[in-house]
Amino acid sequence: xxxxxxxxxxxxxxxxxxxxxxxxxxxxxxxxxxxxxxxxxxxxxxxxxxxxxxxxxxxxxxxxxxxxxxxxxxxxxxxxxxxxxxxxxxxxxxxxxxxxxxxxxxxxxxxxxxxxxxxxxxxxxxxxxxxxxxxxxxxxxxxxxxxxxxxxxxxxxxxxxxxxxxxxxxxxxxxxxxxxxxxxxxxxxxxxxxxxxxxxxxxxxxxxxxxxxxxxxxxxxxxxxxxxxxxxxxxxxxxxxxxxxxxxxxxxxxxxxxxxxxxxxxxxxxxxxxxxxxxxxxxxxxxxxxxxxxxxxxxxxxxxxxxxxxxxxxx
Length: 315
Known about the structure:
Mean pLDDT: 97
Low-confidence stretches: none
Strand order of the largest sheet: 1-2-3-4-7-8-9-12
Distance between the termini: 26 Å
Strand content: 5-15%
Number of strands: 12
Oligomer: single chain
């Protein structure tokens, strides 16, 4: 499969606000935001040339983690389907779907329908998951979740392919003679694998069309990317892959409030120069996040980034 990202480009996407309540990145205004706010941010991303918008996946959060993670996690299929109806061009990424929690034919039915309804804009991002209670609740082996994910990815390749009656024979899943329509609009749904552990990097290199590192600092990325490429070559995979990175928080311009010491802020040219370093490492798409105090400020930041920073990313 050819890479999604055009050669020589460094494209940008974003994890949507509102749909996740993690205290790691949620802004205060999101606590009272509504579907109207979520839709407007998606429309802004669509207008501003964002490559994708993304939604997370958690089924239920235990009390021991609720203080940090919160229990606000919108369902990614429902959320991205809703936003497909108010956008036209931006791709729709699950970042990431914990597909091992569900039977692959159920997952295939949901995401094939989303791809068909959105005219082929789905990117299926998958990951192993990390909340034991979710696996216990759904009867899935938490300690063996890596092996479960490996087979689930293989099964999804079959289930999301062109055949109305897909076939798969594995250790955990077997299906044949069972038809599913609608089929995806894309002949091959792009599958990006998330995670930065050695097992996740191997999975992304050998099973994915792209890789979604999870919070690797800049200084660690070159070695990780080199390892990804080594593993892919060793597996005999010649198809190019889309390599991603999550950037530092951003604020275009000089903030009049405390945006945090890690935030990249200031003149657009300076921000672009800093972000181009990702491209020099071999990254093809960056996931950006903007500090904001309201939906309006976030939309303004996205617009400023697209108009003043993005044109300098490929230089």
